[in-house]
């Protein structure tokens, strides 16, 4: 359990020290600070300590992520620290978390989603242009198979090359060399870093759908720590939770990871949750895309009051209607099964084999 210590004011009140694990990149630290800030506002007596760590994904910078083939590149070291009780909770970008978590862990909070779309960041010499108006054979940097597959199909006049590194590194590579006409990054990261002015274009779903969980932050905890789970559960944003449960269920049913091009788009209108999901061949020439919807209207009676918290695709959210969560999960599974019945497995198998052979 967490350490407890006497508060310095000598009034004998016991206050908790909660240790939060994070990756060391500037963006990860900004994201973790924002979660810590929210916890401090809700629990003023809390003492928070932030512990930075370097993950495998931070160390391997010369290989495309999809080639490494490891699903927990940015999360494993953080989870190891959680397992060893060195930290009490860990803040991740939800899109980095595999759809099946190791035993003993759960996502105790999914915070309100930032803009989940991808953004185009142009080399300064291309200011004012868009992907449509860039010259023939302009090179676009992205290490995401999902982005490359969709954009190759949509913008056949452009070329796509891998670019790795954290946000700072990628922007530096773009600005200081003439290798890339533009790079594609998640709008959420740029906004959190305060670099909105670098966004030249936000890619709409018809150009490029986003990754599962993109734009949302997740707090991972030990599933047995009921008190910590209860503490972070107030950070949950119910609409984001339902959208991300549907997206994660879709990806898990497809058995996709970052080594295959899978994309989603979700929205809530009135009490309907809409999920669009797609799979692509590596060059985008072959694809399947469908949309389904479900009602997420919840009656008050369906709020879960259970002793044993239920996990859905790794998420524990006992304060959000269990019925609505079940429907969101079922929506993801049903949509994946629809695509599988139309040949998604074959498209993804070929994509995986070709990517392995690259």
Automatic annotation (TrEMBL):
Reactions it catalyzes: 4 porphobilinogen + H2O = hydroxymethylbilane + 4 NH4(+)
Family matches, as InterPro entries: HemC, Porphobilin_deaminase_cofac_BS, Porphobilin_deaminase_N, Porphobilinogen_deaminase_C, Porphobilinogen_deaminase_C_sf
Gene Ontology molecular function: hydroxymethylbilane synthase activity
Domain Porphobilinogen deaminase C-terminal intervals: 242-297
Residues of the Porphobilinogen deaminase N-terminal domain: 18-229
GO terms (BP aspect): protoporphyrinogen IX biosynthetic process
EC number: 2.5.1.61
Mitochondrion found in the keyword field: no
Compartments where found: Cytoplasm, Cytosol
Cofactor(s) recorded in Swiss-Prot or TrEMBL: dipyrromethane
One Pfam family of this chain: Porphobil_deam
GO cellular component: cytosol
Gene3D superfamilies in UniProt: Periplasmic binding protein-like II, Porphobilinogen deaminase, C-terminal domain
Metabolic or biological pathway: Porphyrin-containing compound metabolism; protoporphyrin-IX biosynthesis; coproporphyrinogen-III from 5-aminolevulinate: step 2/4
UniProt keywords, alphabetically: Acetylation, Cytoplasm, Phosphoprotein, Porphyrin biosynthesis, Transferase
Origin superkingdom: Eukaryota
SUPFAM superfamilies: Periplasmic binding protein-like II, Porphobilinogen deaminase (hydroxymethylbilane synthase), C-terminal domain
Family: Belongs to the HMBS family.
Annotated function: As part of the heme biosynthetic pathway, catalyzes the sequential polymerization of four molecules of porphobilinogen to form hydroxymethylbilane, also known as preuroporphyrinogen. Catalysis begins with the assembly of the dipyrromethane cofactor by the apoenzyme from two molecules of porphobilinogen or from preuroporphyrinogen. The covalently linked cofactor acts as a primer, around which the tetrapyrrole product is assembled. In the last step of catalysis, the product, preuroporphyrinogen, is released, leaving the cofactor bound to the holodeaminase intact.
Complex formation: Monomer.
Record-given protein name: Porphobilinogen deaminase
Organism name: Seriola lalandi dorsalis
Lineage: Eukaryota, Metazoa, Chordata, Craniata, Vertebrata
């Amino acid at each position: 359990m967490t350490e407890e210590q006497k508060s310095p004011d000598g009034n004998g009140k016991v206050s908790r020290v909660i240790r939060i694990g994070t990756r060391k990149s500037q963006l990860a630290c900004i994201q973790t600070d924002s979660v810590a800030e929210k916890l401090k506002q809700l629990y003023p007596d809390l003492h928070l300590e932030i512990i930075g760590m370097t993950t495998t994904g931070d160390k391997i910078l010369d290989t495309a992520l999809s080639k490494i083939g490891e699903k927990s590149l940015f999360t494993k070291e953080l989870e190891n620290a959680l397992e060893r009780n060195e930290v009490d909770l860990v803040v991740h970008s939800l899109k980095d978390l595999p759809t099946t978590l190791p035993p003993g862990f759960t996502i105790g909070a999914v915070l309100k989603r930032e803009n989940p779309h991808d953004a185009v960041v142009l080399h300064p010499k291309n200011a004012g242009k868009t992907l449509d108006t860039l010259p023939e054979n302009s090179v676009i940097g992205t290490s995401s198979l999902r982005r490359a597959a969709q954009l190759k199909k949509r913008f056949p006049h452009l070329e796509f090359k891998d670019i790795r590194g954290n946000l700072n590194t990628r922007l530096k590579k773009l600005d200081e060399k003439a290798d890339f006409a533009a790079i594609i990054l998640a709008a959420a990261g740029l906004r959190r870093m305060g670099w909105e002015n670098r966004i030249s274009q936000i890619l709409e779903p018809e150009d490029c759908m986003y990754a599962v969980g993109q734009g949302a932050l997740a707090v991972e905890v030990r599933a047995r720590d009921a008190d910590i789970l209860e503490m972070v559960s107030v950070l949950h944003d119910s609409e984001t939770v339902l959208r991300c449960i549907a997206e994660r269920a879709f990806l898990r049913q497809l058995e996709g990871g970052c080594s295959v091009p899978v994309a989603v788009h979700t929205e809530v209108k009135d009490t309907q949750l809409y999920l669009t999901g797609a799979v692509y061949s590596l060059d985008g020439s072959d694809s399947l895309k469908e949309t389904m919807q479900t009602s997420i209207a919840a009656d008050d009676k369906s709020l879960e009051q259970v002793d044993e918290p239920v996990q859905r695709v790794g998420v524990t959210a006992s304060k959000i209607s269990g019925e609505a969560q079940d429907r969101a999960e079922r929506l993801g599974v049903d949509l994946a099964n629809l695509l599988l019945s139309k040949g998604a497995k074959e498209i993804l198998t070929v994509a995986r084999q070709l990517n392995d052979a690259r």
